[in-house]
Each structure stands twice: as structure tokens, then as C-alpha cells.
Amino acid sequence: MGLRILVIEDEAEIADFILRGLREEGYVAEHAAEGNAAWTLMESSKWDLILLDWWLPGPDGLQLLHRLREKDLDTPVLFLTARDAVSDKVRGLDAGADDYVCKPFTFAELLARVRALTRRPRRGADTLLSFDDVQLDIMTQRAERAGHALMLTGKEYALLAFFMRHPREVLSRTRIYEQVWGERFDKMSNSLEVHVMELRRVLEAHGPRLIHTMRGRGYLLGTRAEELS
Ligand code: CA
């Protein structure tokens, strides 16, 4: 049985992106889009984690968090917020949030925090991703290949993390884009190709190609032998 996560978010696209991602990672995720419905779910069931948006119709995230803590429910809460002013972060944490993530965020970033807050038993193993001679630490956001540190932008890092979570799988451009960018894939845009090209350049400075183009199907993270098999 996977850990149970309640996602409280009124923006349908963001909620979809989070729910799909969490379910793909094996969590049981449920959703509320409005404060009153959210409260009913918060009270009526036991959750391992609550992802709570700040701005909501009905009681907002901060009010819900106050209510939860008043009832002495100590479910971990990860605040999702577009606010990044220091005073707002402090208000959220003071109200009893365990951590927060500012929008826009990548799924890799969110997942790292989810894993930390749910304290899964194999945390060390979960946060260190490894494929062939490439290693990536989700918690510290460091990546290396054959012992060389890789200098990656946030997007390249998120892209590499996504590939490393799905090694030897053919990943469609749509799936990669929607998971890593958190937006609907635009077939006319070449930003995915550009980032893959850049990521390859960084990786291939220290070894052979690992991200292969599967013509008409997408990309695959694999060694040369795996690509040909
Ligand atoms: Ca909102």
C-alpha cells in the first residue's frame, strides 16, 4: 500500500500534473480543489502528507492549516505557494507547515520534499539516483559522471532526474515535457530538443552517449548496447 497524499490545489492543470506524477511514483493521491471540500477530507481520513495550496476558494490554505494544528493533527504539510516573500514563508511555517515550495516548481523538486517529509524508510537509496557512471543526489541537487561534477541548469537537472527515474524506457516527448515542465506540450516548440542537446553536451564531456533519440517515439536513457537491443 502506497503512502497517502492529499493534494489541495484549485488550479486544475497544476493539480493534474502533481497527481499524475505522484501516482506514477506509487503514492495514493487524492485531490480537493476548494477549501471546504478539502477540510472534509483532511478531517475524515488519515494522510501521510498534505500538499496545500495557499490561495483557494473557500477557507484558504493558511486557515486550513490553522484549523488542522488547532485540532492537534500533526500530519506533515507541504505548502504550495506562489508567494516567495520571506514574511509569507515565515507565516506559513509559523502556522505549522513543515516545508514549502514556491511556484513554479519542477516535479523533481516537489518529489524531493515529499520524500523528505514522508520519511520513507529507504530515504538514502531513494534520493540517490544512479545510472551507469552517472549519479544524481535529489536532496543536494548534485550530479556527477565518472566522478566529474556536472554543471547543470535547473531545467537540465530536472530533465536528467526524470530520465534517471525511468531508465531504459522509451519516453515520449509529450510525457517528458509535461512531467518536467509541468505544462501542456507544444509540438511546435523546440525547447525540449534544445535542453536535451545541452544535457547531452554536458554528459558527453565525460563519456559516451546515454540519452538516445528513438526516431518517432521519443528518447531513451541507456548504454549503447541497450539502445541497440
Ligand atoms: Ca491556488
Question: What features would you highlight for this structure?
Answer:
21% strand; 12 strands; 4-stranded antiparallel sheet; 229 residues; 2 domains; Rossmann fold; Arc Repressor Mutant, subunit A; alpha/beta; binds calcium ion; elongated
Brief rundown of the structure:
The chain is α/β, with parallel strands linked by helices and 229 residues long. It is built from ten helices and twelve strands.
User: Could you say what the CATH topology of the largest domain is called?
Assistant: Rossmann fold
Please name the CATH architecture of the largest domain. 3-Layer(aba) Sandwich
Walk across the major sheet and give the strand order: 2-1-3-4-5
CATH class of the largest domain: Alpha Beta
**How would you name the CATH homologous superfamily of the largest domain?**
Response regulator
Shape label = elongated
Class of secondary structure makeup: alpha/beta
Helix count from the secondary structure assignment: 10
**Largest beta-sheet details:** 5 strands, parallel
- Helical content band: 40-55%
